[in-house]
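Risk register update: the risk that structure generation would not scale has been downgraded. Supporting records follow, first protein first.
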Amino acid sequence: MPLTLEDDLAILSDAVTVEEAEPLWQWLQRCPRGRVDLAAVTHVHTAVLQLLLAARPAVAVPFTDPFLATWISWWPAATAAEAEPPPAADAA
């Protein structure tokens, strides 16, 4: 099963498909301080990735898949409250 939801930890594994987006979103709303374990993910649907980027949950364990770790390495492992604000856009 690609998504296991515990009290304060969401464990994503294998190929995480679009079907996991809705239950993950509901869990993130119920558990705003919840953490995610991404170690066993081998593929992530863009809907789930966008959800994680928007919600910015704390990352308990980051991606270990070489492709995901490389291409999504810019994702901070901090919560929104701990993350630095994005740089201001140039006023050109």
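Supporting record for the second protein:
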Amino acid sequence: MKVQQPFTHNYLFTIKIYTMTIVGRITKDAVVNQLKDERTVVNFSLAINETYKPKEGEYVKVTTYCNCSYWISEKIAENLKKGALIEVTGRIYVTAYSELMVQPKPHSTAM
């Protein structure tokens, strides 16, 4: 069993959570990036809207943003335009940055 050390250094950690399917709208046109090793990746962001009503009160709208990367083909970027409603299935990773002896900062979710 590996014992986790207390926060003693600045570091970035990534945790693989699960595979999940989400539906959302694209926040801006997808961007195709080429890496140093000649691979290409399509990056885009989804906005996922949720509305709920507490027992007492008005409806509340919550928007969650999810950064996504598509590694199979760059041709998909032609269809990933701002405002398009899409369904995405993939592995989810949560990344957080922690400072020395301080609580973790807000994290980002990527798919």
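Strands lie at 11-26, 31-34, 40-52, 60-70, 85-98, 108-110. On this basis the risk owner (M.S.) recommends closing the item.
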